[in-house]
Amino acid sequence: MFHPVVKIKVYNEDLVFGPGLSMLLGHIKETGSMKEACSAMGMSYSKGWKIVNRAEKELEYALITRQHGGSRGGKCEITLKGAALIQRYEKIEKDVQEYTKKIFLEYFPEYDCHADSQLGEVQ
Residues of the signal sequence (predicted)? Predict the structure, then answer.
């Protein structure tokens, strides 16, 4: 079935955040570990830190708190601002996807699998 795909990415001069950071932070929230979060995404540990550090620098606030290793290993937790960023990003992503689907079907009604009507013309 034909369908539109839109990805929300926020830039300053460079990419600040987008679906990758949102997903990475979600995995960190679930696992408490940068290493496990990166592994779940098939991403190198150093790339994960690069993404988080770049975003924190641009946003000028911490997204995660870091507790360095030791005998039990390190630990990461999402900050309140980090959790709020994920929540707002997921909300805007949902809203944009819904609007995109709606407008797509206005321009391309023939791809609406739920419509019983014939091909309409764009006005």
Answer: none
